[in-house]
Automatic annotation (TrEMBL):
Coiled coil: none annotated. The gene is rlpA. InterPro entries: RlpA (IPR034718), RlpA-like_DPBB (IPR009009), RlpA-like_sf (IPR036908), RplA (IPR012997). Keywords: Cell wall biogenesis/degradation, Lyase, Signal. GO terms for biological process: cell wall organization; peptidoglycan metabolic process. It holds the Pfam family DPBB_1. The keyword Signal applies. This is Probable endolytic peptidoglycan transglycosylase RlpA. Lytic transglycosylase with a strong preference for naked glycan strands that lack stem peptides. Residues 43-129 form the RlpA-like protein double-psi beta-barrel domain. Its EC number is 4.2.2.-. SUPFAM superfamilies: Barwin-like endoglucanases (SSF50685).
Length: 135
């Protein structure tokens, strides 16, 4: 199930949309990610936010913990990935804009907003399936 449709103040929503990957409008039936290939069937993901909010990312943009972005060690910056929490089935499309994670055996660091959408912010880490999107 693709997680969409957050209720946010209009100015906050406009700012986030400008800095994040395309998302499906609430209730839309089409998926915005045509999967090119699965990268990891079960990888560990964590999230980052407050300590990095406002700092520069690897691609030169300012990190926004409310955007739909992620950090990966090797994927091309600007790549879009479909991330699925294998424990609860929640999915979201994220844009790679940073490098990392640099902690343990983790394959992906997602923004605070993405962790909320995937349902693991309180737990801190989750097992996820990563798929590369076309285009």
């Amino acid at each position: 199930m693709l997680k969409t449709g957050y209720l946010l103040p209009p100015l906050c929503f406009a700012f986030m949309m400008a800095a994040s990957a395309p998302v499906v409008a609430a209730g839309a039936s089409s998926n915005v990610c045509a999967v090119q290939r699965t990268l990891h069937h079960s990888a560990k993901a964590s999230w980052y936010g407050p300590g990095f909010h406002g700092r520069k990312t690897a691609n030169g943009e300012t990190f926004n913990m409310y955007a739909l972005t992620a950090a990966h060690k090797t994927l091309k910056l600007g790549s879009r990935i479909l991330v699925e929490n294998v424990e609860n089935g929640l999915q979201i499309v994220l844009r790679i804009n940073d490098r990392g994670p640099y902690h343990g055996d983790r394959a992906l660091d997602v923004s605070k907003r993405a962790a909320d959408a995937l349902g693991f912010r309180d737990d801190g880490v989750a097992r996820v399936r990563l798929s590369l999107c076309n285009g």
